[in-house]
Amino acid sequence: MLKTIRSKAVGAVAAFALGLVFAGCSEMLSRDDFAARVKDKSDSEVAKLVGKPAVVDSSKPNEVTWTYNSRTFNVEERNKFDSKAVVVFAKTPTDGKLKAVEVKFE
Fold first, then answer.
1. For residues 54 and 26, what is the distance between their CA atoms, to the nearest angstrom?
2. Where does residue 82 fall: left (phi above 0), alpha (psi -120 to 50 degrees), or beta otherwise?
3. Strands 29-30 and 80-81
4. How many domains would you assign to the chain?
5. What residue numbers bound the domain in which 66 lies?
6. Reduced to 3 states, what is the DSSP secondary structure of residue 19?
7. Which of 23, 51, 64, 72 is 20 to 30 A (C-alpha) from 39?
8. How many CA atoms lie within 13 A of 43 on its CB side?
């Protein structure tokens, strides 16, 4: 009986620890902090700073959008969570590389 209780306790602690590890992979940021991290950055810089997006849309010829789910909150609305943060990249005219030009919150 005691072994069973210990096994369950160890399993619960392990599950909790894994949850913390995975939660740390997607840091929650205020809208201002998120926008400041990504604005005017290249796509590779954005990936390093805030991680890979949930969705990438490259259907437009000179624009790419990256969508992040549940990563931001709005301080002005009592820290209400945003369901999406969308980073809009445009190709620079000089070298054609992607640069973050806008951030939208939904």
1. 11
2. beta
3. unpaired
4. 1
5. 27-105
6. helix
7. 23
8. 18
pTM of this prediction exceeds 0.85? no
pLDDT in tens, 22-46: 444 578 999 999 999 999 999 999 9
User: If DSSP codes are grouped into helix, strand and coil, which group holds residue 91?
Assistant: strand
Any idea what the Cα angle at residue 29 is, between residues 35 and 67, rounded to 5°?
60
The reply to whether 33 falls in a domain is yes
The tokens describing 44, both together, are 């590779």
N- to C-terminal Cα distance for the chain?
51
Rounded-to-integer distance, Cα 92 and Cα 81, Å: 32
pLDDT in tens, 83-95: 999 999 999 999 9
Q: Residue 15 phi/psi, 5° resolution?
A: -65, -40
In a domain, 97, yes or no: yes
Work out the percent of the chain whose per-residue pLDDT is above 90: 73
The CATH code of the domain that includes 97 is 3.30.1450
Single-letter amino acid code for the residue at 48: K
